[in-house]
Amino acid sequence: TYRCQKNFSEALETIDQAIRLASDNSGWLPHFLDTKSNICADAGTFEEAIAFADEAVRLFSQGEDYRGYC
């Protein structure tokens, strides 16, 4: 049986780097936070996943800067 091996620490390092590089007005920050939320959920850290998802939703709902990237 094939089983997918997930490397959560590598995934978190990569998305954290993307978050650091994204500027607040780039339009990509909420997407990166959403991705980090998914990684955290997959890793079983659900409180962190919810916090990142909430922040992504907050940014998405802020205004014009993030519409059109959805």
Q: Ends: how far apart?
A: 36 Å
Rg is 13 Å
Major sheet details: none
Q: How many strands appear in the DSSP assignment?
A: 0
Percent of residues in helical segments? Answer: 55-70%
Total helices: the number is 3
Counting helices, strands and paired strands, the structural category is: mainly alpha
Please tell me the overall pLDDT. 81
What best-fitting shape do the alpha-carbon axes yield? flat
Produce the secondary structure layout:
Blueprint: H1 8-21, H2 29-43, H3 46-60
Helix pairs in contact: 1-2, 2-3
Task: List the defining traits of the structure above.
3 helices, 70 residues, single chain, mainly alpha
Could you provide a short overview of the structure?
Helices cover 63% and strands 0% of the residues.
Description of the molecule:
The protein has 70 residues and is mainly α. Helix content is 63%, strand content 0%.
